[in-house]
Batch of 4 targets.
Target 1
Amino acid sequence: MKKRIEALMFSLCAGLAMISQYIREPNYDSDFLWSIAIGKWIDLHHSFPVVDSFSWTINGKEWMTHEWAYSYLSYQMNHAFSSLGIYILSLIPMVLTIYFLYLIATQYDENKSYAYILVFTLGIVLLYLLALPFRAYIYALLFFTILLYLLYFKDERNFDFVLYALLFALWANFQVSVFIGLVVLVAEMIRQFVLYPLKRFRVLAITALCFISTLVNPYGYKLWTYFVFVISTMDVTKASISEWQAANFHVTWVLFTYLGTAASVLFLHYNRVSNKADDRAKECAGELKKLPAKAGKIKTSEQYNNFIQWLKTFLTRETCLIIGFWFFYIYALYSVRMFVFSLILWIVVVCYFVGKIRRLNFGVKTYYILLLLFVVMTFANLGSADFSVKDIFSYKKNVTPIEEVAFLKDNPSYSQRIFNEYIFGGYLILNDIPVFIDARADSYIKFGIMQKYMDITGLKQDPQPLLDELGVENLLITEGVLKKYIDINPQWRMVFSGPTAFIYSRASVNQ
């Protein structure tokens, strides 16, 4: 069987198995809801938002959506196919990511066995166990994987310039994490620039083209200013956003996953490092002898040759991938979001090591057994879901307060200048109710609303003066310390008690 067909079959079966799990039990957060709302706005106005129009707290303030392409596609797919369209939109990058990772893994199959297949499968399961499917972020995983493929595993061709430019142009319109890709690109291009003099023009041209390609988006250079804002300012209040926090190591499986991935790389690396260095040194020595013949009149000193030889021995493709894994792994200790990139590199690195272990010699039967397992998982998940796609807008009541929002739409006076909890913002926006705050944390941090929200919900001091200052007239809150405070505050009265949240209004308003 050809490797590309084999990879496609594996990717499709694995992707369907993962998506079927989400069909059985949808998993998403409010980011997904505001994405659809923004896509609806773009489709309605035939333009791109440059100021906020979804809240009453920062209405009219400068704002940009760096995920506009995903938002627009999610709205169109949902409009055309309802909830099924969202699953299709998530399945596409999932299958393509697995496909390119599989192609990478097979290049390390020196023993012509399937030793890598079990590790690869485990990595894929972990990757999508930790990554939400209904987010623009899964497209970032795809673009990151394709970048690794282009940089390290694809044969060089004249049209590579177009592929790199297209990749970064797409990435810049789907997710601001394109700057992570630029960091990886620059690191590898510096290595090639130093080690391979004959490639320097190509290296510089591709790097420049990729930087320029990131400007091919509706906001141009402002995407760069947004990134600078994220890394320089948002760090102040990132502790309030779970995906920017460190992983919760009190959860056993999380601790096991983090330590297990690191331990596997350490063990396999030191088990083979000496033999690999010797082999690579011989290979580099042969390459250096050929260099003067290719370069013509290029002359280098013996000392320079020795230095380049050492660099080629040390800075191999695999060493760079291992270093990349550790960089993302260490960063993941401070921001859990980075761990998915670390896992992608873990899959590649561990498949590299395992593919060279002669004691492991799994036959093609292992491949077919896993395909069968994925098929069984798919039908088992769909069977428990009655072969029906759940309505993703109503499944998670803690994110979508359906009855409460229905009450607000029937009684619009209670939705005026409403203070809502962070997690409800996306559903309110989707229902055209201006919010106090939602999951577009960047803008609320920039204009100070996030801090005010934390001050009110944290009850570090009496929140009533702040509610008065902001002109809050209604509340949509859940059980907690804020509700206990409001219940004993004579300035507020409950007007609706729902299964998910409670609606309060000022005692002197709407009477």
Note: The radius of gyration is 26 Å.
Target 2
Amino acid sequence: MLLDLAFPALALGTLVGVPLYAWHVRGRAYAIFGLVVLAIALPGALFLHPRLVALLPSSLAPWLHVGFAYGMAAACTHLVALVRARLRPRAFRWLVSIPGMAFIATGALSGLFLLALMPVRALCLVAGWTNVLAALRWLDLVPLVVGGLSVLTSLRTVEEIVRIPLDRATHPAFVRLPVERRSPRRVRPTPSRPLRVVQIADPHLGPWQPVHRLRRRIERLLAHEPDLVLLTGDFLTMEGAGTPGALARALAPLAGVADRCFAVFGNHDHEAPHEVRHALAVNGIRLLVDDEAIAQTPIGPVQILGADWVPRGHREHLEALCARFPPRSDHLRLLLLHDPLGFVHVPDGAVDLVLSGHTHGGQLGLLSMGLGWTVLARTRWPDHGLFAHGTNRLYVHRGTGFYGFPLRVGVPGEASVLEIVATTAASAG
């Protein structure tokens, strides 16, 4: 009996205790954040728990009680630890942060999934389709399976060579373009030597991407000997921002190629600008805050504009930036723009290619199943891949980390080398 009540009791204690503790120690804003997270995650978990106990063999019931109680305890401990945020040891990450955040995400997914099934179950109940209703009970396992698979998705990145053609064709409306992706082991020659770019987007140094993992990923990317390394912002989480010097250590492999490294701020970087500035400066990486840089590369000079992140006024901001630094003759012209939402406001013909991140590839979608759909597919935000508007081109990187919703669901991170190839084409009309 006590084991049956362990999870509900922990859930109630967490719902009340975490916001109160956070308010006392860190203030109102984080208390509200914790309350909102729990309010989203707990209803689904509390509803799913008894359904699974009734569905599965009775011999598994104690394990279910223990599993839900552990997940709740881990989530509570993780949220409490965020009150004094800092990067934690490996044991804490694997025993507390990762299971706790996975529990929160699975609870949120469970609530949405079970809510979506309610009309179907109601119809079966009214129609007397008891056999169908009994079969639908097994769908209650779906959120657990999706949550488990998403942990694996969140811990890995896909290594790719992405070929981006710059054909100067005109597309009057904003449109997605196909892009060639292949394994680094599959070498395919190009008519001319491409510009090889490594883009590091949204690393979000934190529990899912500690210092050693980000260093290792950077080292693997540098092994491809890129011509440029372009960092498009959102370097930290609350834990990363709360650990002075951690980002500098994570970016240390870039110090040896600092002359070809350029960075811009993302929205989260404005929460800890001094930490980000220090990490970039100590490794010799140039930060572009509404500024330009000229890089000499094997394909010739490249003009790089770096746009600071702004919450509004994208059109005025980008028009002013492009006017302040006009195109240079015989230079490829790149724009680093953290949030791709502003891409449609870049004046037509002002740049050859915009590189963005921010959306984490959509974060929830079906890319792992070979389908291009994500939850952002029908929104204003370009989610991932190559886009066109006029003669301008945009590449949105899926990023390597994430912030906010604590799992990647069907959208793995990206560790790619971009091959930018200049071609010619007629107008697309």
Note: The first strand starts at residue 157 and ends at 166.
Target 3
Amino acid sequence: MRARSGINWLGIFSAVCLLAAIGLTLVEVFFYSRLFPTLPPGLSLGEVPVGGLTEAAARSQLETAYTAPVELQYLNHVILLDPAAVGFELNTDSMMPEATQYRASENFWAGFWDYLWLRPRQFNDVPLRADFSEEKLRAYLEDLAARYDRPGQPPKADIGTLGFVPGEPGHTLDTQAAFPLIETALMASDPLTRVVTLPVIEQTTTRPTLATLGELIRQDVAQFQFTGLFSLYLYDLQTGQELDIHLLNGEDVNGPVAFSAMSTIKIPIMVAFFAQKDGPLTPDEELILGRSIDESANTATDQLMTMLGRGDGLVGDAQDGLEGSRKIVADLQRLGLANTYISGLLDVAGAVLAPLATPANTRTDLNTFPDPFNQTTAEDMGALLVMIQQCAQGGGTLMVAFPGQLTPDECRTMIDLLTNNAVGPIFIAGGSLPNGVVAHKHGWDRLPLTNVADAALVYTPGGNYAMTIYINNPDSMGYEDADRLIISVATAVYGYFNP
């Protein structure tokens, strides 16, 4: 029997498979060889993917991402910022050599093996190298603010109503805060990150400021055609803000200005008495204090000074009164009130000490010819009232200057005494109606009037404040004219705190 001859199909199939594998491998090698000269997969420039791209294509991709406009949103406005407008420049030439190093360091066959098996490649990023002009960006922001800002309009003084014309809200660009936000967007490749909501300051507060109140007061004094010297000190007890105004013939002058203290000197005398007093008031002391403050009796005030001079709570003689005045001056200097003093008794002829030189009464540019034995300034008396108020609340300069000698209860008693000085709707009280409570001491000199003053703590629903007003006219002034002027100014201040 003859052996059968045939084709070895298994061998042929194996050969075909081998040839096909070799062919496919050669095809893949061909395709990979075309990719190998390009930038490695997984590579990015400044976080812009450039793997598989040629250097030219990578440059183009990078420039497309970073030269795209940055979107700026200013409230409901959209502004497109061309990076070139702020001097933005890509330093691609310094980035590309680092990118090509990744390609040069790769082994062809190792990379081909990973390519065949679709192995993920290591991601590498060449940091962005770019710059822009800070000066140009700041100039751009300033121009942007000039075009889109709508600053609010503050209230204005309205002498017709003795109040204020309401202001208008507005908004302004916060250029300082916007700068780093735009800088970050310029250096970002993600389109979403290249959108900036600009920080805008909303100006919604339209209350007048103390400066606006000052303008209203100046206009008010001018309206009265007051040709003398006008001094006002105002202290906001909520915020600690101060307002100083000194007008001579309606024109601003620098303070402080020395005035005759008149009966307002009874406030520091009262403070000195309580600083020396130990324990509760006796009925006699209550009576003398009441007559000094409520009735403004000079005899009662002299009695307080003699009690201070004796130091034992008993009324003494004139020499004790002079010693008392020395103690009062020492207390005032301890408090830093260098322009206020009393050099003698008020109701005893000849019972005086030498006048004192102060910063206010030694200036040579203006002179109110104040009482040489009894002087103050609007600032000093206002500051003392603020100290009394702070002491009543348990703190402040008085309690520091007189540790263990003054208590909040004693300071509240002083305020009560000043509040009981209810002499009708005149001066500051007359301008603090209907709801103001006024603790004050007023004063004027002998007829014809040349000096008038009022020093007050004013408590109102809209805020509390200390206010002192001193006016001087060497040619004399009518009492009613002075009263109307002070009432009008006090009304303006009350309206500021109670719009």
Note: DSSP finds 16 helices and 21 strands in the chain.
Target 4
Amino acid sequence: MSPRLKKARKICNPPAVKGFKPYGQDIVNKSLKPVSLLYEEYEAIRLSDYDRLNHHQASVLMNVSRPTFTRIYASALRKVATAFVEGRQIAIEGGKVYFDSDWYHCSSCGCYFNNPEKENEILNCPLCGQSQIVRYDMDHHHAIESFEWDLCICPECSYEQKHKPGQPCSQMVCPKCNNFMRRKRR
């Protein structure tokens, strides 16, 4: 029997840091592997201990059942205790999560970014400043068109072809010169 599929856990905000390192003269186990604290485990500690919510309230915010939240929280505490007692680093990474804010994809430079300030509209890419951005749909793993884009063009040989919805132009290869293509506005 195969294991149950893991449901994605909702995270309000990513952690401010990527992890923690122990310090001091008594650290002898520098070669030990870091303890990997998953994003949902970080979120469980934040909601329960920092925001002081009970397990039921926190489980509602993470969109999981109360027993599932308790298991996530218990796993997080075991990992933090292991890191403290053994003097190991903590790396906050991974897990099947989604963030509680809209995500965007820049068609110009290819970066993904979110909008934690929901009241402010995103008009430009924060990396390259271009206005060629689309809202990213995490459920269907493709960008939702917010502009009238319908052609892909090769920047090298200017070959054009009709855009295929759900397939980013930046992942398509030009059949003439084998370079990656880009979007073109008609």
Note: The first helix runs from residue 39 to 50.
